[in-house]
Design the sequence.
């Protein structure tokens, strides 16, 4: 069944790299397939959304206050959620 697309089973997708973490003003996401990345705060609000092509994409976090966020990445492989810390010195 479609259960293999569940968040838990793909949350450690090795094809996605997200760095640096903690981040300051930008974070780079490296994906093996075209992916939609959505930045979500701890209240569940969507802060931003980006269409990522295969390879590396740098996302601008300059408008994000320091704190913890989630990055939800959706591709044909499923949904991956990573926690992202923004730490502005």
Sequence:
């Amino acid at each position: 069944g479609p259960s293999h697309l569940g968040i838990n089973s793909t949350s450690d997708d090795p094809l996605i790299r997200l760095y640096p973490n903690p981040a300051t003003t930008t974070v780079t996401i490296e994906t093996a397939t075209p992916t939609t990345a959505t930045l979500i705060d701890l209240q569940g609000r969507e802060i931003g959304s980006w269409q990522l092509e295969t390879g590396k994409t740098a996302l601008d976090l300059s408008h994000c206050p320091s704190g913890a966020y989630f990055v939800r990445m959706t591709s044909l492989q499923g949904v991956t959620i990573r926690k992202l810390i923004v730490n502005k010195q």
